[in-house]
Amino acid sequence: MEKCLEHFYKDNIRLIRMMGKRYGLSRESLLDAYSDAIIDFKEQVRKNQFQQKSKCSTYFYSIYNNKCIDILRKKTTYTITHEIPENLKDTSPDIVQMLTFTVERNFLDTLIARLSSGCKEILLDWNDGYSMEEIATRNNLLNAHVARSKRYACLQQLLAIAGRTNLVNDKGYKTH
Q1: What's domain 1-91's architecture?
Q2: According to the model, what pLDDT value does residue 169 have?
Q3: If I label 72, which of 18, 65, 129, 152 is the partner at 20 to 30 A Cα–Cα?
Q4: How remote is the C-alpha of 27 from its chain's centroid?
């Protein structure tokens, strides 16, 4: 599966340039969206969600396109939220959001604790918003491309741990 996915990754890399022209996103954002789309594509194939009603490349294109649109939405949402006057913002915490965040964070902390120390650092740096170049420097990696590949491998390791722990059912709830 990994060899096939690696070949698929290389065959569709041209989409990065195409999406860059279409959406005007930075190369780093496009590469991040591309690697996230590869991960989602692999998971959907593994879970038999890909029903072969189209070519693999067409199916992957739609996933990657949606990832790029999500990045654009985040930028737009931030801009709109950023322009709301301070006196109109509701700063009171929503108890449901706080509980959800706490449960999700505890679950994620449990999974991350099982990762190798190198993977922990890379994923935590990525979560903290460091660029791939900064992650490479902070973790003594050769360059951003190596950091991106390592992040992909670490996410795969995290998914494998989540699958083995049986802590989550198919709806994403804790089962023990």
Answers
A1: Orthogonal Bundle (1.10)
A2: 44
A3: 152
A4: 16
